[in-house]
């Protein structure tokens, strides 16, 4: 009975450790990413851009030069991260999940106490240029 009690936690530990070290189910390449902004009191807007993403750099990059991506974490096919801009005036938390050649995610940005939610969808469109 004691062997069974020790065996179960060990199996669970190995299962979750394997998930955290497994490569995500995503294809490296050029990705077309559409962001849909949802901000209270404002009409919904969307915009599309392309970004070269790899398993090593799977977080869609910010175009703002005064922002830094921090705390990138990967669990299976899902990545989470934090972006801090201008000494903490703006902060974002992002989460994206890959499924081979597609992705879905959400980014919540807080500026001056107001939160904006951005839904993102992406698809691989070819090799990086």
Can you give keywords for this protein?
7-stranded antiparallel sheet; globular; 129 residues; single chain; 1 helix; alpha+beta; 7 strands
Shape assignment: globular
- Count of discrete alpha- or pi-helical segments spanning 4 or more residues: 1
Approximate strand percentage: over 45%
Distance between the termini: 59 Å
Order of SSEs, N→C? HEEEEEEE
- Using the CA coordinates, give the radius of gyration: 18 Å
Give the fraction of residues assigned to helices: 10-25%
**Number of E-state strands:** 7
Q: What's the rounded overall pLDDT mean?
A: 80
Structural class, from secondary structure content?
alpha+beta
Strand order of the largest sheet: 2-1-7-6-5-4-3
Q: Indicate the low-confidence ranges by residue numbers.
A: 4-21
Task: Tell me the major beta sheet.
Answer: 7 strands, antiparallel
